[in-house]
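User: Quick sanity check before I run a bigger batch. Here is a single chain. Can you write out its predicted 3D structure?
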Amino acid sequence: MTTRAATVFSTSIGARLALLMGVITTVAFVILAALIYRQAATSYQTRVEAGLQSSTDLMRDSVELYDRSLSESTARMAGTFRAMLPAGDISVDPTKPVTVGERATPRLLMGTETLNLQESVVDRFAEATGGVATVFVRDGDDFVRVTTSLRNAEGNRAMGTVLDHASPAYAKMIAGEAYTGPARLFGVDYMTHYMPLKNAAGEVSAIAFIGQNYGDGLAALKTRLRESKLGKEGHFLAVNTRQGDDYGTVMAASNGEGEKLSALVDEADKPQLEALLAGNINEATLHLRPSKDAPVQEYFVTAQTYGPWQWTVLGLEPTSVLAAVLNKLMLKTALVSGLGLLAVIVALVLVVRRMLTVPLAAAGQVARDVAAGRLDRTIAVKSQDEVGQLMTALRQMQDKLREIIAAQNEMSALHAEGTISHRIDASAFDGEFRTMVEGTNELVDAHIAVKMRVVALIAQYADGDLSQKMEPLPGEKARITEAVNGVRGRLQDINGEIKRLVDAAAAGDFSVRGDTDAYRHDFKEMVQGLNTLMITADRNLAALSGLLRALAEGDLRGRIEGQFQGVFATMRDDANATVAQLTRIVGGIQQAAVSVATASAEIAAGNDDLSRRTEQQAASLEESAASLEELTSAVKQNADHARRADRLAAE
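Assistant: Done. Predicted structure follows.
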């Protein structure tokens, strides 16, 4: 697919739809052609198989017809032979045996005539009919030939031989029933008829046998089988299915006659061959060689078994004949389907272009205009089909977009005028348009909420309440949070500076200064003003403190000098007046102190005389105290003696 074709299919829904419909139609045609071919092939194969089966049936019927004709003539010949036998009842006299060949046999009597070794009876029949005849006598479980025109491979009469117990005729004879069927006797093919001969008691005592050599007729039948053609290249096989060494031998065929059919069939197909020969199935596909040296071919095979002869007639036709016919049929089907498909695809492309591609292109242009923001184009609806419904939907979408834009412009104008509470009425819209309007309202609500929160915080900060801060906002709105919280932080910092200076002043430390380098603009001027206040208070109080220190040291000569203003000037004047007054008081105190010093000297002399007298009185008191202690001791001793005397008096 070229680049241009790929572009057309990638951009045109009509082209893709036409391609899709073409693919679907192609698949449908292919399936239809395949079904037609399959149906035709199946039908043709069925006809071939039916024809093959019918031909095989006809060939089997030919064998059956020949067999019936031969069997009927043989049965008639058997009646002739029976009429040629002596009249009278049949009896067997085992007491008078007759040696036939090398075997002693019971005497067989018909009336009064002995049939043992009576060759004239069978020879007369052979001369009259050209067939062979035999009379068997029953000897126990055996039936022994006692007279016959049948000769063995050496040309001698087969006298004294017995009827094979495995022969299908043996069971019939034991049952007392006649039997007609083919038999190969001493290398010659005969159509035989066995007739049981019963005594007066109804017991089988002997057998009358005639055989009609059908070698010439069989040869003619085989020639017909060899020369008969089945279709163009098919042919027939007759296979011997009689159990024995000859089982599976090809009796008649254009090739491979006398071969074992199993030797001509592939090993994998032998189970099917056995089923065909056994009569379990009547058709199969076999891979076989027409002869040992021929290549393997695949054949349709039908089988019909003819039980009396124990033959299976096989009809074979090469599958290549059917394949050739089916190939021609397939080519014709493909050619007709291809021409029909081409005509349908061309018609589909034209119809899709007229009914879909052109209208959709117009709808696409409208959609592109809407996407580009051009809502002024008039959208015409020319039909009521799906394309017309699409154009109607586009027009409705255009109208809704116009309504939304008008509502947004109205809200923008009202907000510009200060009516920030106005919102677009979302209930007027449905679906995603409503979601769009609600989203716009939510966006406006979010911005207004931030704005009102900032206003509320600024109002609190203006009242001196710095306890609340701006909540963190996401994305670029974080700058709002940073700005508001920055103002709060600066106010808290300047408030901290004021508190620090006030606390220092309250503690009497006017040497503390605010950090003016940490602030700018008005905040810096505020700190500088506070520092000026601290400096002024510190200088004035230092002067007052120096005056008081001098007074404390007794220096009443100091005075506060300098330019002071306001209360500090009053403090200077009051302090200087206080020092002057103290100077006058201290002078008076000094004069009084001199007088007091003189009186104090006189008092000190009187105090010394009084002290000496007091010391003498203290020595006398010490001696009195010692005498009192001795007196106390004597009194205690007298008290003890008194208590002892009292005890003694009591005793």
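The longest strand covers residues 90-100.

User: Great, the batch can go ahead then.
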